[in-house]
Specification:
This protein has 111 residues and is mainly β. It is 0% helix and 42% strand. It has a single domain, classed as Jelly Rolls (Sandwich), CATH 2.60.120.
């Protein structure tokens, strides 16, 4: 096993906040903006939702997804990148947070 130290003082703070009001069966394609919060605020619980991560993330990018309602089946599409510990559902008030590592082309779950 190898470890890497990261200078956290150079990591950009989360800079983009997007509020979505999805309906069951809808899809959300995240843009290329660095470090974003995805705030899901559906009118009620959802049976299904798909979220597709950006296709050209930059090393150290962070995506946070949270929901004000439960989502029974959540599909997170890495858009050609691996998403470790992708959420399969979200409970009311649930969230997940991922950081991209370009050396291995993986979104790592960090929260």
């Amino acid at each position: 096993m190898t470890t890497q130290q990261v200078d956290v003082t150079t990591i950009e703070p989360i800079s983009i906040k997007n509020i979505y009001v999805p309906t069951t069966g809808s899809s959300i394609l995240l843009n290329q903006a660095r470090n974003q919060r995805v705030l899901l605020n559906p009118a009620g619980s959802l049976l299904s939702l798909t979220i597709t991560f950006p296709d050209a993330p930059v090393d150290g990018d962070i995506i946070v997804i949270s929901s004000s309602q439960a989502i029974t089946t959540l599909t997170i599409n890495g858009n050609g990148k691996t998403v470790n510990s992708a959420l399969a559902s979200l409970s009311l008030g649930g969230f997940g947070r991922w950081c991209f590592d370009s050396s291995v082309n993986i979104w790592f779950r960090i929260g």
